[in-house]
């Protein structure tokens, strides 16, 4: 190796000399432009050096490279062997440690739970650091021994835990009756522990073996289900604690409650005391001195129990007690301060017992938001009452009209309003709430009036309730008043969404569909002025033009109109079904065909008469006439359409149709004969029937001559031209009369006269 190093060093020195020489030659020739050695001389200078380099390279390949490869392989083998030895040594060290710990655990006395658990935990940690899938016999043996000893220690601790806790429950537990809970009891028997066994050691050992939290969780769930939850649900249940020779028992008993002295406030106080009694019983009997010993301070078993059940427990307290004690009036709000103080004290007591953390305040947050809950409860009560009214039967009706229309009342304003807004005087309040009748002095009949008709009694009660709520809003502070006003708006939305669905079957009946139409129009009528009536009397920002119900008017009207239009379409369909046997009057000349038409007409008159009697008692007079006219017009248009489609009408057919149509048109007054609102007003009904005049002229044309028809047309200015088009008149002439010169002249006159008019 030394000669090789010297040869390499000599070659390096020669290479440096040659490099300097070449640099000087190149510099003189290309920089100083001086003649220098030729390329051949330079190559001769380098060749000896190249020969020495080649010899040295051959020497490397022949002598050193095989030795280097052999040394590298040997080094790798030695390194692998060393790593294997180190792994085995590390494995054996851990196995020896596990073996030592298992021997120490086995040699511990049966009551030294903490030492046993510590040794087992050390073994567990060491075994987990090894490959769990190892098949080495010594590893499997140590692992099996660990499992056996751990099972033995855990079972021993579990037996101690179970011997301390004794639950007694009735098999007939029910949340519908508290009698089944009277047999529930929890006995904590500390006598089962030897003098050398401490509860703190049991808990610490379970914590080391990671079985403490599962045990506490199971115990917590039983504590909540069998003790705390029944005490919350049943006010008469109360816990009773007994102590005898280090044995503690908690039982549920029934306590008589004096209803005259029992209030919501006292119910909360009693509940808080019962919950605290149970928690303190568990802490003082089961976990006594656990928090004071340094070795178990970190366990905090009461905190763990609270973590497991506090969420569900607090929800039960809020749902079954605090939510029910939320005030429902302003006077009750003043008495609510005591409940707030008691709840804050209850949470402080729970913190002092270590049951909840210092930052836990779910109950106090709920109780401090009493104003919000109060407002929400008022709104819920309002909507609940409104829904109850809405869902009552709509058959019972009352008559309303101009003289009892509260929406037309002009509310006077006082000259000395207080800072909360104007207060309505007692008389106006009674009128609006429906207690007193509306007096003439408060009406503005000529300005705003609701027509006489019938509405459902429940709708009148609903409107009474709305006025009562609005009056309460005028007497409430702004936050509450705003909630009440918007609840009144929600009442109308509730009506629109509930009634068409809940009364869907009833609304298919003619009378109830008309009644629903009136109900919607009645509510919409009041919504027009409701905001203006109370605007000056509401507190705060509600005392402005923004307080309005006008936007609900089209919604309510649409609800009523859609229902009634659907009823009209249903009645029209029924009329067309009754006319279907007439077969477009094609068989009218036959005896059977004539009888069928007569029977259909009689059925239509009977049907319309029945509908008219139902509607006449409910609808306003003008709506009643218009609705009835639409149905009569449906029958007339069917007849007109059938006649105008005929291409050939014989004299017998024309005479028969004239007779039948005359009977029909003459019987139309029968439909409204018994209707008090239409007596003596047949001409008005005829004017409202769109096709009445046209139908009347068709009857005349069926018996008229060509000249009479031309005279009725009278150059497009006659009475016939006012209700029938040129094409319709020409069509009837072609169908009634044969193709003669006279018919052609008549058709030409109508056409010529019509052309002249255009």
From TrEMBL:
Looking up PANTHER family in the UniProt record yields: CENTROMERE/KINETOCHORE PROTEIN ZW10 (PTHR12205), CENTROMERE_KINETOCHORE PROTEIN ZW10 HOMOLOG (PTHR12205:SF0)
Q: Which organism is it from?
A: Clytia hemisphaerica
GO biological process terms, semicolon-separated: endoplasmic reticulum to Golgi vesicle-mediated transport; mitotic spindle assembly checkpoint signaling
Cite the Centromere/kinetochore protein zw10 middle domain residue spans from the record.
165-390
Domain ZW10 C-terminal helical, chain residue ranges per copy: 600-750
Gene3D superfamilies membership? 1.10.357.150
- Which ranges carry the Centromere/kinetochore protein zw10 C-terminal domain? 448-576
Q: What is this protein called?
A: Centromere/kinetochore protein zw10
Quick one: a GO cellular component term?
cytoplasm
């Amino acid at each position: 190796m030394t000669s090789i190093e010297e040869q390499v060093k000599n070659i390096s020195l020669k290479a440096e000399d040659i490099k300097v020489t070449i640099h000087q030659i190149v510099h003189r020739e290309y920089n100083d432009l001086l003649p220098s050695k030729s390329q051949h001389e330079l190559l001769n200078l380098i060749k000896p050096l190249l020969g020495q380099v080649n010899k040295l390279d051959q020497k490397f390949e022949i002598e050193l490279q095989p030795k280097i490869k052999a040394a590298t392989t040997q080094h790798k083998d030695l390194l692998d062997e060393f790593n294997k030895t180190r792994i085995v040594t590390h494995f054996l060290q851990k196995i020896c440690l596990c073996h030592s710990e298992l021997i120490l655990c086995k040699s511990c006395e049966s009551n030294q739970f903490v030492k046993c658990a510590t040794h087992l935990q050390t073994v567990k940690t060491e075994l987990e650091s090894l490959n769990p899938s190892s098949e080495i016999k010594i590893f499997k043996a140590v692992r099996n021994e660990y499992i056996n000893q751990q099972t033995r220690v855990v079972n021993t601790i579990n037996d101690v835990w179970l011997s301390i806790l004794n639950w007694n429950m009735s098999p007939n537990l029910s949340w519908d009756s508290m009698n089944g809970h009277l047999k529930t009891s929890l006995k904590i028997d500390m006598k089962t522990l030897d003098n050398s066994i401490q509860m703190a050691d049991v808990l610490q050992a379970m914590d080391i073996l990671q079985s403490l939290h599962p045990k506490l969780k199971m115990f917590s769930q039983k504590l909540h289900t069998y003790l705390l939850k029944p005490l919350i649900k049943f006010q008469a249940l109360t816990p009773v604690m007994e102590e005898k020779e280090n044995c503690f028992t908690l039982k549920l008993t029934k306590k008589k409650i004096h209803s005259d002295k029992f209030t919501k406030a006292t119910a909360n106080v009693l509940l808080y005391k019962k919950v605290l009694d149970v928690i303190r019983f568990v802490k003082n009997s089961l976990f006594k001195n656990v928090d004071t010993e340094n070795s178990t301070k970190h366990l905090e078993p009461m905190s763990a129990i609270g973590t497991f059940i506090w969420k569900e427990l607090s929800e039960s307290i809020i749902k079954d007690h605090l939510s029910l004690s939320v005030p429902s009036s302003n006077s009750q709000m003043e008495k609510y301060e005591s409940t707030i103080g008691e709840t804050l004290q209850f949470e402080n007591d729970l913190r002092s017992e270590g049951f909840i953390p210092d930052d836990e305040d779910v109950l106090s947050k709920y109780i401090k938001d009493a104003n919000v809950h109060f407002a929400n409860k008022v709104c819920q009560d309002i909507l609940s009452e409104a829904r109850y009214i809405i869902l009552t039967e709509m058959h019972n009706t009352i008559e309303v009209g101009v003289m009892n229309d509260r929406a037309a009342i002009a509310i006077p304003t006082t000259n000395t309003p207080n800072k909360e807004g104007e207060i309505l005087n007692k008389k106006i309040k009674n009128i609006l709430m429906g207690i007193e009748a509306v007096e003439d002095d408060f009406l503005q009949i000529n300005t705003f009036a609701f027509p006489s008709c019938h509405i459902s009694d429940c709708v009148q009660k609903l409107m009474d309730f709305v006025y009562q709520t609005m009056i309460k809003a005028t007497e409430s502070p702004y936050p509450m008043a705003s909630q009440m006003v918007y609840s009144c708006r929600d009442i109308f939305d509730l009506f629109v969404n509930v009634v068409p669905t809940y009364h869907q079957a009833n609304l298919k009946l003619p009378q109830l569909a008309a009644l629903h139409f009136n109900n919607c129009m009645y509510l919409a009528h009041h919504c027009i002025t409701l905001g203006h009536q109370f605007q000056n009397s509401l507190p705060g920002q509600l005392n402005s033009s923004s307080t309005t119900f006008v936007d609900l008017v089209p919604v309510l009207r649409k609800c009523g109109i859609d229902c009634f239009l659907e009823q009209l379409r249903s009645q029209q369909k029924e009329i067309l079904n009754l006319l279907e046997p007439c077969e477009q009057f094609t068989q009218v000349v036959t005896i059977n065909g004539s009888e069928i038409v007569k029977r259909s007409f009689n059925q239509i008159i009977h049907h319309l008469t029945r509908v008219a009697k139902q509607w006449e008692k409910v609808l306003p007079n003008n709506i009643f006439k218009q609705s009835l006219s639409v149905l009569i017009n449906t029958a007339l248009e069917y007849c007109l359409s059938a006649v105008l489609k005929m291409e050939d009408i014989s004299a017998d057919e024309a005479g028969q149709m004239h007779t039948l149509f005359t009977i029909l048109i003459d019987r139309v007054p029968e439909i409204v004969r018994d209707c008090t609102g239409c007596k003596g007003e047949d001409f008005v009904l005829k004017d409202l029937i769109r096709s009445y005049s046209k139908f009347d002229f068709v009857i005349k044309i069926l018996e008229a001559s060509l000249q009479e028809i031309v005279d009725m047309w009278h150059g497009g200015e006659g009475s016939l031209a006012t209700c029938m088009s040129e094409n319709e008149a020409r069509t009837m002439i072609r169908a009634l009369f044969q193709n003669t010169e006279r018919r052609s002249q008549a058709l030409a006159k109508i056409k010529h006269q019509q052309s002249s008019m255009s």
